[in-house]
Model the fold of this input.
Amino acid sequence: MAKSPASAPKKYAGPASLAGKVAVVTGGSQGLGEAIARLFADRGAAGLVICGRNKENGERVAAEIEASGCPTIFVRADLANESGLMTGSNIDYDQTVVGASDPPLEPVYA
Done:
């Protein structure tokens, strides 16, 4: 029996579609957060921002998701320290956000 040729993955069009939405996934550099970021990309998110402490993992995951067709950036941030979040001392701001002048986006709730 002949094998069928490999085909491109189909775009998700179900009720949980994220088409046209941009999501921020904390802890997106590994584990459950990484899985959620990949799921959001598979569900058609227009873009992702993933946050985490590990720069190497975060950049790797962002590059892999970006290669699948979903624009993704990684922002190194230690979200375990609440006081650092208020002052911004534990977040790398050396990031370029494409489309920052676009109209505000609606939040995505998963």
About this structure: DSSP finds three helices and three strands in the chain. Strands lie at 22-26, 47-52, 72-76. Residues 22-80 form a domain with the Rossmann fold fold (CATH 3.40.50.720).
